[in-house]
Amino acid sequence: MKIEIPTTCPCCNYPLELVNDQLFCRNTACDAQLSKKVEHFCKTLGIKGIGAKTIEKLGLADITELFYLDASTVEETLGEKTTAKLLNEIEKAKQADLATVIASFSIPLVGGTASKKICAAVSNIDEITFEKCREAGLGEKVSQNLVGWLETEFNEVREFLPFSFTSQQVPVQSGGKSVCITGKLSSFKTKSEAYKALEEAGFKVTETVTKSTDYLVDEDNKGSSKRKKADDLGITIIQNLNTFLKEKQND
Question: Could you give phi then psi for residue 182, rounded to 5 degrees?
Fold first, then answer.
C-alpha cells in the first residue's frame, strides 16, 4: 500500500515544508507548536505540576499567560490544593537565572550550554549581540538564531514577562580567561567532563579560537585548524588539561 505524504499540518492545516526527508509546519501560531513551547518553558524553569494535559486543561497557548492565571478560574479546573501548589511553583520560577530563562524560550539551537556561555559574557540580556555571542564561543547559526529572536519575538513578549533579565554570574578566580579544546582528550573521558572541570575552575569555555582566546587544549596534536590558528596568534597551548588545572589550583 502506497503511503501518501501529507501536505498540510494535521493541527492547523498550514502547508507543510519538506526538508531533508522531514516535514515541518512553519505556522508560528500552530496550536501544537505553541503547546510544546509552553511545556518546554515550564520544564526548563522547573515549574512542577504542569505538563501537556494541564496545559490543555488550562487552555494555555502562550508562555506569558502563565503569569496572569486567575486563581479562582484555575481552581475550577484543577482544584484548590493543586492550584495553590502550581501558583507557588510559578512564583518561584520568576527568580530563575538569565541562562535558564533564555534556554526556556525554545529558540532553535539555543539550549542550556549556549545560554550559559553567553550569560557568562554579559551582565544583562540587552548586552547580547552577534559579536558577543561569537566571542563567547557560540557558532554562527546559534548566534544568528539568538540575536534574531531577541530582535523580533522577544520584543513582543518582554513587557509581559516577570524576569529581571540580568545575569547573576559570580566573578571567577581565573579572571574569566577563555579556553578552547581541539581534538581528543587523554586526561578526561569526555569533553563534557572537561568543560565542567574548566567552568568549575572559573574558565570560560569557547568553541572557536579568536584573538581573545587565552588557552587552547590540544592533547593529541594532530595539526587541527584550531591549533594552527592558535600558533599564529601566539596562544598558549595546553598539552595536558588535568595537569594544567592542578597547577592552577596550586597557584
Answer: -130, 145
pLDDT in tens, the chain (251 residues): 677 888 888 877 878 888 877 888 777 777 777 889 999 999 999 999 899 999 999 999 899 999 999 999 999 999 999 999 999 999 999 999 999 999 999 999 999 999 999 998 898 999 999 999 998 889 999 999 999 999 999 999 999 999 999 986 543 444 568 899 999 999 998 888 888 888 888 888 887 888 889 999 999 989 999 999 999 999 999 999 999 998 887 66
Query: 3-class SS at 44?
Result: helix
pTM over 0.70: no
Q: Of 93, 111, 132, which one is at a domain's C-terminal end? A: 93
For residue 24, what are the CA distances in angstroms to 6, 14, 63, 119? Answer: 11, 10, 22, 31
> Are the beta carbons of 76 and 120 closer than 8 angstroms?
no
Residue 21 in any domain: the answer is no
How far is C-alpha 63 from the geometric centre of its chain's CA atoms? 17
**118 falls within a domain:** yes
> 184 and 241 share a domain?
yes
CA distance 46 to 34: 18
Question: How many domains are contained in the chain?
Answer: 3
Q: Give a yes or no: residue 7 inside a domain.
A: no
Which domain range does residue 182 map to?
A: 178-250
Strand ranges across the sheet with 178-182: 204-206, 178-182, 215-218, 236-238
CA-CA-CA-CA torsion for 115, 121, 125, 130, nearest 10 degrees? -80
57 and 83, same domain (yes or no): yes
Establish if 199 belongs to a structural domain: yes
